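Most newcomers find our protein records easier to grasp once they have seen one. A record pairs a protein's sequence with a compact description of its fold. An example says more than a description, so a record of this kind follows:
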Amino acid sequence: MRLVYLYILRSLCLGFMAAAALLLPLFGFLDLISELDDIGRGSYGLGQAVLVTAMVLPRRAVELGPFIALLGGIVGLGQLSVSSELTAIRSAGVTVLRIGLVTLVAGIGLAVTLAATDQYVASPLQQDALQRRAQALSTPTDKVSGGVIWARDGQQLVRVGELRAGRMPLDVEIFRFSKDNYLQSYRHAAYATILADDVWQLHDVQIKEWSAAGQTNRQIGQQLWQPIIPRHRLGELTLPANSLSPQQLYRHLQFLHQIGQPAAVYAIALWQKLGLPFLTAAMILLTVPFTLRQSRHTALGLRLALGAVTGLAVYLANQIIEAVGMLFNLSPPLIGLFPPLAMLAVATALLLRINRKPG
């Protein structure tokens, strides 16, 4: 039986490769089309757009992992079904449950591969691609920003209005409070440059101070300031949550809690990444009842079409659950783990149901 199991695994792996070969060029082409609108801005050209799109492809592979599992499983098992090999395997005494376990092993292998790709390949490449893109698009007057940044450390509160190319803080405001939460001083800098020792050099600084004697105002050209946001964390604050690896997300969440920044988006992204292997396992398990409930005379193209519709429905359900979860401030673990675990339960129930049926 070992050879039979290895043969099923081989067929599934070939199906995964076929599904990836179909989906990745398609989504890569769509990504490239979305980049065309920015060609001509700054120094961003067609060659850079192609390079950025290529560097983001591993991220697309990770995000499409569950659908690669679903379509690849349909292709792999579907070919065995069409050629009657699956019928022969079942006639040899291999139960539906054992076939399901073999497909689950293939799904776990795919999930582990995707998790390693996310950690060591997709995240570094995507972050590099986003930085290259931001630098190419930026001009001396552009403000490439990930949004307003707030940070707090003890009695000091900092606001960074914009980031130029993800590196130069603009419109910097620094508030210092007393222990009784009275505002003691306020500084505003037009921009800041980050020095080698991680110290910020503030430029065009306006300073207001309050004391028992009253308010004093002064303006200076430059001032050194020890920031509460490290250089490497500053860049992460402007990156999309999905571009960070699970390890980076965990560390980033701890940092956001320390500086008092909202962290819900990053928490949801982390739990969704942790739930992705379960969704991949659910999708690959779903291919067994999906294939066996279809007649072996059913065209493979029709099976793939039905699989694509199923994958789209799961994707839309995930998006709806995420939006509803953020709207009602639901728990990030619930948002990230409920859909894949629910799908895994449904796929397991269908597999056990078919396994109990004779023939």
